[in-house]
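Subject: design request, 355 residues
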């Protein structure tokens, strides 16, 4: 594993014409998302808590779904895409169920769910959405294991972040719900039509400064004897996403390809951009100063058996990296299932002695 080579590959993608275009598109989308969510939050009589926040709901935002005058978020429930949430410029949020989801509903619920449904501030539509979720839950199938662990981590970190992981992590939510955060680069480290989605983004602690953010990449237990490759896959994927988000959220200028440097833009637009990402990621009351940037690290989440035996090579590879743009790396391992699942740190670069 060579983190410097990975970094240079991402720099090449970011410096290319398609890469620069995708980065600009993502930045415009995130600025629009902030404006829509601010309008939504400012609306009177907010009643988002009519929908329970622990029952498997998750937002996912794609590049294609966020273009145009109205901004769309994909809505997942129990690991299944069930519809799209359109947030209008005035803050109204309307849910459109997918035809497949609606077709599986019994009458008269199917007919009642045919129209756009107010996501909040509407009692009758809230009751319809609740009944739709009950039907989807009853229909199964079982939740994919990676999704189950994602949801569990979202809520454990939110409710017990200091104790469970020992770092005071707090997950990034959108409008109060778990959300996968998209980037301009896909999981292969390439510029693509569809965005790559970060499983979970969390804030750390850094008193007196902007908190660091951590890209959590979650993997289910390996099949057969592929444990070492699962850990490496989680680390590499998380590293690529963390670096891609570092470039995007900070408005970094990539000066050349072939491993060239990238520098922090200090224009007013770049400061506005960093402030928008900071707001979306849950940091309030602090505007980035000219030299300050949003910093990102990586946490690979795997089964304990998949982490054991692979940590030595990982530590050695991380020690060879200069940590200029991705500063921290951790491995969080789990054992057990469901309510009995436990988590334990296997590696945290930020608590290792200086080398």
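Subject: RE: design request

Done. Sequence follows.
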């Amino acid at each position: 594993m060579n983190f410097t080579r990975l970094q240079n590959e991402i720099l090449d993608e970011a410096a290319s014409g398609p890469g620069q275009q995708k980065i600009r598109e993502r930045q415009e989308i995130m600025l629009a998302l902030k404006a829509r969510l601010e309008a939504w939050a400012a609306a009177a009589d907010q009643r988002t808590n009519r929908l329970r926040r622990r029952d498997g709901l998750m937002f996912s935002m794609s590049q294609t779904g966020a273009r145009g005058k109205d901004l769309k978020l994909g809505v997942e429930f129990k690991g299944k895409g069930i519809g799209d949430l359109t947030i209008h410029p005035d803050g109204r949020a309307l849910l459109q169920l997918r035809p497949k989801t609606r077709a599986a509903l019994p009458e008269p619920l199917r007919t009642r769910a045919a129209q756009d449904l107010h996501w909040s501030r509407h009692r009758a539509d809230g009751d319809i959405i609740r009944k739709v979720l009950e039907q989807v839950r009853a229909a199964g199938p079982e939740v994919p294991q990676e999704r189950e662990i994602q949801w569990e981590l979202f809520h454990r970190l939110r409710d017990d972040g200091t104790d469970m992981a020992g770092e005071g992590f707090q997950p990034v939510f959108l409008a109060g719900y778990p959300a996968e955060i998209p980037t301009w680069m896909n999981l292969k480290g390439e510029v693509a039509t569809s965005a790559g989605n970060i499983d979970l983004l969390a804030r750390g602690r850094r008193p007196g400064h902007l908190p660091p953010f951590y890209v959590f990449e979650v993997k289910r237990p390996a099949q057969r004897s592929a444990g070492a490759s699962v850990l490496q896959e989680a680390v590499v994927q998380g590293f690529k996403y963390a670096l891609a988000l570092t470039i995007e959220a900070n408005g970094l200028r990539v000066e050349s390809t072939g491993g060239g440097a990238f520098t922090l833009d200090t224009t007013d637009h770049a400061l506005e951009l960093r402030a928008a990402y900071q707001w979306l990621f849950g940091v309030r009351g602090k505007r980035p100063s000219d030299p300050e940037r949003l910093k990102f690290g990586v946490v690979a989440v795997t089964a304990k058996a998949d982490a054991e035996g692979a940590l030595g090579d990982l530590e050695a590879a991380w020690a060879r990296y200069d940590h200029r743009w991705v500063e921290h790396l951790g491995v969080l391992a789990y054992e057990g299932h469901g309510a009995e699942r436990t988590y334990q740190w296997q590696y945290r670069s930020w608590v290792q002695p200086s080398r």
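Residues 44-52 have pLDDT under 50 and may be disordered.
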